Amino acid sequence: MSELTSMMNIGKEMANKLRAVGIESSEKLIEVGAKGAFLKLKQKYPNVCLVHLYTLEGAIHDTEYNRLSENTKKELKEFSDFLKK
Fold this sequence. Notes:
- By secondary structure, the chain is an all-alpha fold.
- It has a single domain (4-83), classed as DNA polymerase, domain 1 (Orthogonal Bundle), CATH 1.10.150.20.
- It contains four helices and no strands.
């Protein structure tokens, strides 16, 4: 099992939050997916925001979150907006 902090965009604070919601490794994050992980985080930490979702997606794809494609960002924003309803 690989450490979460070995993934791009995942620092100590995010890794601690992910572990708190049962995502203990990079493999588990990939398995759950960015949206699934974000949903778990949102339930425990209501203040997580769209940037966190971008960060998770970037980590899974080994890409800096600010380099995600516009289509990916749009899809993730729609998902985040849907959760606010």
